[in-house]
């Protein structure tokens, strides 16, 4: 990310913003992903996905509390419809909860809170620099934090056991699922409200279900289709404004 930002001559954040952006980056790219991986160890994928899909709700409430975004009835309705779509799609998986699943869901909710604050607080910093420059500083701080955590916990040693498949998977996750995805996310935060951006997160578990159907033959069920439709309707409601009479 940093070499790309230099190569494209992206505008980097002013000096007075660097510490704040580094803290935001550490909270999201560091703390969020640590909590995320801890959470999925306690609960099922479906229940973890549902907890992750509360992001638009948390973003909307935090934005309203901090005064950075107006809480409207239409936006609230759109968020609720989208989250309901996720519940409908994952309904079957939500019934089978392992012992102690609440711990994973509570941790995941805390992780989502980190991302919600990141969504709400990022926009002024992006506007004073550039999406790529902002992201390079934030992801850099998060990467340094993860390396420190990995060294302190001894988990970094696992890298020595990786084979070619694990390294290629890691490269894909770092470039496609990481850098490229977050460039698009920050570009969206620059152009519209945090809640509207966060509402698109409800597509995540639905898309995972459709991809699983294609790759490993999991069935495409009517609840999955109904949930997908509800998610897109919810996003449309949240992303559009009602016309004045």
Structure summary:
Belongs to the EamA transporter family. This protein is an all-alpha fold and 245 residues long.
Structure report:
The structure is a single chain. The protein is mainly α and 245 residues long. The chain has one domain. The chain contains twelve helices and no strands. α3 packs parallel to α7, α4 (55-65) packs across α7 (101-128) and α5 packs antiparallel against α12 (222-239). The longest helix has 28 residues, at 101-128. The relative contact order is 0.19. The model has no long low-confidence stretch (mean pLDDT 83).
- Shape by Cα distribution: globular
Structural class, please? mainly alpha
Strand content: under 5%
Mean pLDDT: 83
Q: What string gives the helices and strands in order?
A: HHHHHHHHHHHH
How many individual domains?
1
The termini sit apart by: 47 Å
**Topology, number of strands:** 0
Name the poorly predicted regions.
none
Organism: Bradyrhizobium manausense
Family: Belongs to the EamA transporter family.
Keywords: Membrane, Transmembrane, Transmembrane helix
Protein name: Permease
Write a concise keyword list for the protein shown above.
single chain; 245 residues; mainly alpha; 0% strand; globular
Helices and strands in order:
Layout: H1 2-7, H2 18-39, H3 45-52, H4 55-65, H5 73-89, H6 91-94, H7 101-128, H8 131-153, H9 164-191, H10 194-199, H11 203-216, H12 222-239
Keywords: Membrane, Transmembrane, Transmembrane helix
Transmembrane segments: 18-39, 77-95, 101-121, 133-158, 170-190, 197-216, 222-239
Subcellular location: Membrane
